[in-house]
């Protein structure tokens, strides 16, 4: 009886979380342009998606800004974490607190403050300002992913490499970096995801004439979303779903492999 | 690894410059705009507007809706995470994965899908009619906004709560039961205190975005319900009164700082318990 209640509870939350996604996926196959009206099944929007230049351009901006902001944030995060590792506990916690400000602050305040900065510096809002803003809010995520592993690094390995005649750079590249690779990758992927999904901060730091996918969607909301957008979102969601399951399945198989040994 | 202090400072330099330019200076800008008038003179007028009825009402409603959605998120996630941690580890992790996957759907689109579900002739009402039940009016009400907030921010509560609950050593729970605690006592005296850090960070992560959102209220409140986030957004993108918008942002920052201080306080008292 108890088990049934628990299953029903989990299923109910499941329904709540996936109902809107179901609606969006259904809309991507809906022949009608208007939401909430089902007039028949079609694959038309998937075909037209690849001819819609507005959406494709926004997609391209999202991907390039996501990749480059994640890359810069990861590099900056790595250098910062190296510096933080050598510091005393007090100083480190103060600097970590400063680094976390964009994470804890409300997105709308971060967005506005950066917009005021860029305009105050006389910059024109556009691709460059979006990119800088994304690096700003990506950095804390990278540090969050990287810092625990950085602190648990065994410095004897590095010293041993130095004793055996490696230059500092070589010891770093051959000993420290491989150790950090998983959390660097995790930080990079988290940063890319956050960048690709961000609407609020981009909304305030973008100028006229440039859009990422989220701001393109926001602009379309007033006039009605192009159905191609539903098609694109469905494709992205299915891609992430498959990717997540492959990752999970692979990890589970490795765990089973390890316990069998 | 980095032995000399000079080298360490060199490595810290990029971050310090970065933080000064992109974290500190922007907040100074907000402070300056918020505390000056259009004529460049110091004034408290931009913060003082909260004494006017319409601004006070928006702030009050924002706080109320944020509190409600935070509370619902907490009450919904807690049993969920308990159920998930009871499961076999890999099984629980798989279900957990399914719970955070919806975060990868664009939040504007899924919030708009809620519009399709909740509206007057929407999916929910069509379903109710099928069961010959009366219609419900949710769209353009505060209730719809709360649903949207819960939908968007529930994963932020589930994530830290699940992590802190799954870290609890099962033997501690068995020990409590062995020593004669009832399952209720075990819950209130062992599980609840140990999961507090996760719950606190979940509360912070849901409350702040709920308090400051503007697109959820814009989409599901239909401009009939104005939250403080909507007013700030409009001051910057439509009305172009940066001074007023910054003043209200300063008010929001007060809440954020209170929230951060509470979190720090609970973190510290947690540490003392461990000693």
TrEMBL record, chain A:
Q: Which InterPro entries match?
A: Bact_Polyamine_Transport (IPR051789), MetI-like (IPR000515), MetI-like_sf (IPR035906)
Q: Where in the cell is it found?
A: Cell membrane
The way this protein sits in the membrane is described as:
Multi-pass membrane protein
Transmembrane feature ranges: 63-84, 96-119, 125-146, 183-204, 229-249
* Entry-linked Gene3D superfamilies: MetI-like (1.10.3720.10)
User: What family is reported?
Assistant: Belongs to the binding-protein-dependent transport system permease family. CysTW subfamily.
What's the protein called, per UniProt?
Answer: ABC transporter permease
Source species? Megasphaera hexanoica
Automatic annotation (TrEMBL), chain B:
Per UniProt, subcellular location reads as: Cell membrane
Ranges annotated as spanning the membrane: 12-35, 55-81, 93-117, 137-163, 242-266
Swiss-Prot/TrEMBL keywords? Cell membrane, Membrane, Transmembrane, Transmembrane helix, Transport
What domain of life does the native source organism fall in?
Answer: Bacteria
What positions does the domain ABC transmembrane type-1 occupy? 59-263
Gene Ontology biological process terms, A to Z: transmembrane transport
List, alphabetically, the GO terms of the cellular component aspect: plasma membrane
Membrane topology type: Multi-pass membrane protein
In terms of InterPro entries, this protein maps to: MetI-like, MetI-like_sf
Keyword set includes Transport? yes
Q: Which residues form the signal peptide?
A: none
Family per similarity comment = Belongs to the binding-protein-dependent transport system permease family. CysTW subfamily.
**Name of protein:** ABC transporter permease
The upper taxonomy is: Bacteria, Bacillati, Bacillota, Negativicutes, Veillonellales
């Amino acid at each position: 009886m108890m088990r049934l209640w628990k299953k029903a509870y989990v299923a109910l939350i499941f329904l709540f979380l996936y109902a809107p996604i179901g609606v969006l996926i259904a809309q991507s196959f809906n022949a009608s342009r208007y939401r909430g009206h089902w007039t028949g099944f079609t694959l038309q929007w998937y075909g037209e998606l690849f001819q819609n230049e507005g959406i494709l351009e926004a997609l391209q901006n999202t991907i390039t800004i996501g990749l480059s902001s994640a890359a810069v944030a990861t590099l900056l995060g790595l250098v910062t974490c190296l510096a933080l590792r050598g510091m005393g506990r007090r100083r480190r916690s103060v600097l970590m607190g400063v680094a976390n400000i964009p994470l804890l602050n409300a997105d709308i305040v971060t967005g506005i403050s950066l917009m005021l900065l860029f305009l105050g510096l006389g910059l024109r809002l556009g691709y460059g300002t979006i990119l800088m803003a994304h690096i700003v809010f990506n950095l804390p995520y990278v540090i969050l992913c990287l810092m625990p592993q950085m602190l648990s690094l065994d410095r004897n390995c590095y010293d041993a490499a130095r004793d055996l005649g490696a230059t500092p750079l070589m010891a770093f590249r051959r000993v420290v970096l491989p150790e950090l690779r998983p959390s660097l990758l995790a930080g990079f992927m988290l940063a890319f995801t956050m960048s690709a999904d961000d609407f609020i901060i981009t909304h305030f730091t973008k100028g006229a004439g440039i859009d990422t996918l989220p701001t393109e969607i926001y602009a379309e909301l007033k006039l009605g979303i192009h159905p191609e957008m539903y098609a694109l979102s469905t494709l992205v969601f299915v891609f992430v779903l498959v990717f997540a399951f492959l990752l999970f399945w692979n990890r589970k198989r490795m765990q089973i492999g390890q316990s069998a040994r | 690894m980095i032995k000399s202090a000079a080298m360490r400072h060199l490595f810290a330099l990029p971050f310090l410059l970065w933080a000064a330019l992109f974290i500190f200076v922007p907040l100074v800008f907000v402070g300056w705009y918020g505390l000056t008038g259009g004529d460049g003179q110091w004034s408290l007028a931009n913060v003082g507007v909260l004494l006017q009825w319409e601004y006070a009402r928006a702030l009050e409603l924002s706080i109320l809706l944020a509190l409600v959605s935070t509370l619902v998120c907490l009450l919904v996630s807690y049993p969920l995470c308990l159920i998930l941690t009871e499961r076999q580890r890999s099984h629980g992790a798989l279900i957990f994965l399914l719970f955070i996957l919806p975060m990868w759907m664009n939040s504007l689109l899924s919030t708009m899908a809620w519009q399709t579900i909740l509206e007057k002739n929407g999916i929910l009402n069509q379903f109710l009619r099928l069961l010959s039940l009366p219609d419900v009016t949710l769209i353009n009400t505060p209730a719809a906004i709360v649903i949207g907030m819960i939908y968007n921010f529930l994963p932020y509560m589930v994530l830290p709560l699940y992590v802190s609950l799954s870290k609890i050593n099962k033997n501690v729970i068995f020990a409590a039961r062995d020593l004669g605690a009832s399952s209720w006592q075990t819950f209130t005296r062992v599980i609840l205190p140990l999961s507090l850090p996760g719950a606190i960070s979940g509360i912070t992560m849901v409350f702040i975005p709920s308090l400051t959102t503007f697109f959820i209220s814009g989409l599901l409140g239909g401009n009939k319900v104005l939250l403080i986030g909507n007013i700030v957004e409009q001051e910057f993108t439509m009305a172009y009164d940066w001074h007023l918008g910054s003043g209200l942002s300063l008010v929001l920052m007060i809440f954020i700082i209170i929230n951060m201080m509470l979190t720090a306080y609970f973190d510290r008292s947690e540490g003392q318990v461990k000693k």
